[in-house]
Amino acid sequence: MDRVLIACPTYEGMEYCFREFIEKLRDLDYENHKIVIFDNTRTKGFFRKIRKIFLDIKVIYDDTKEKENMKRLISSRNKILDYAIEKNFDYILMLDNDVMVPKHLLKTLLSFNKDVVSGLYYCPFRRQGKLVSLPVAYKAISQKEFDMLKEKGKLPKYAEKIEHVMRHLNKKELQQPLVEVFAPSGGCLLLSRKAFTSGARYGREDFPKEIHPTDDIYFFNRLRERGFRLYCCPKLLCKHVIGGKYAGNKGIHPLTN
Question: CATH no. for residue 70?
Fold first, then answer.
């Protein structure tokens, strides 16, 4: 049976959902795994608290000197990759702290035998002044689609290149058991050893500020550069508890326009 590292970055702002998150991990129906949490909170108070309460979970303090929250997250993601390499795991299940996984998630993702594959969760986005719940998984648009949108004046002002534009999975794609994507749901992502030892790392793209690029988009681009194909299982739904995470953004995903 493959050895799986189940890992997640966290910080004190995720305390509102931390207990539920751990309970879901304990309920997974796959035995050969180890749960490791990397806490990048600026002080050690939250680290000491969760280490004391959750005695069966390994908690590591990420003592990064980075001050910006995104850079601290990137630090923890990359330290998870390093930990999996050092400890010789076969897979990483890379999670977000607010993604509550179903019991069968790990077995299902492993059954696809893919190097990069995710489950799926939804998030509120603002579209034309309205809030809509959309899947956090994306397809790239074609050059023909990009040119057509540009000709009709329907591209956002910041979209200077085709890589600045991606679309959510559509209804037909959401009915498929497995779909190849431009960007899967990075908060419930399974990576094979081939993928996480490839040299691909988390970071941040130099995109226009309006796009609010995330750490996982950078990582997915680096994986594609190395020849990996990325997949999502749309029917493997996870509960997304975002109430506290995006409180400063009125509960809306930052990748909105």
Answer: 3.90.550.10
Q: What's the number of domains the chain is made of?
A: 1
Q: Is residue 255 part of a domain?
A: no
Give the pLDDT confidence of 26-69 residue by residue, as tens digits: 999 999 999 999 999 999 999 999 999 999 999 999 999 999 99
Nearest CA among 27, 17, 8 for reference residue 105: 27
Predicted confidence at residue 155, as pLDDT, reads 73
**Secondary-structure breakdown of the chain: helix, strand, coil percentages, each rounded to the nearest 5:** 35, 25, 40
Range of the domain at 85: 4-249
Structure tokens at 4: 């799986």
Nearest in space to 19 (alpha carbons), one of 244, 246, 236? 244
d(CA 21, CA 62): 20
Q: In this predicted model, what pLDDT tens digit does every residue of 109-148 receive, in sequence order?
A: 999 999 999 999 999 888 777 889 999 999 987 788 777 7
Q: Which tokens is 150 given? A: 């540009």
Classify residue 254: in a domain, yes or no.
Answer: no
